[in-house]
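Your task:
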Amino acid sequence: MTTPTTTMSRKHRRGYTLIEVMMAIGIMTVGAVGIMSLQQAATSANIQAYHLTTANEVTRIWLERLRRDGLSWGAQRTVDGFTINLLSTEYLRSADALVVGDFSDWIALVPPGSTATDSWAFDYRGVDTRSTADWTYCTNVRFARVLSATTTNAVRTDVRTWWNRYATSSNTDYGGSGAFQCAQGAQAAAIDDELVGAGRIKAVYASQIIRPVEVQP
């Protein structure tokens, strides 16, 4: 025969104390917070990776545009040597007044004439835009004269694309960037200063050498 005392003792052995329950809840809470933190970190990393990939693609687009413009840079062979006509280009003509060793300022090039559809600003998807409400990436170009002689001529083009490092898929961050607005023409010195330090914007860079195309008379 089972006594009441024995039955009560077995019931106590099969149960959990309040301390054990609270410990279990605490462990589950810590685990849930950890999982949410990992999810947030993964999301942030994916956003930054997207920005980096898109900025690299935008930079490549401008490298191709400058290379295309270089096809209009003709080196005409004459009886006395070569005639170099850099002014026949639309973008590279900005380097015409430079001497060897000189650099131009960073500039958001204004697409002229036949390239009016080109833009110095791009939206979140990496598509050309002129709307200040849509811009996400801003591309600047700097020129440097590498060679300048009668028979040898070359220009180096540096391209950088920058964006707000804290940006998400919203344009709100970009609208409040203050001095870091993407406008045509010379870029504010504040952008250079911000890129030198650990600032609020990030950038990718690329360079290439462009030489004139030899045109037979």
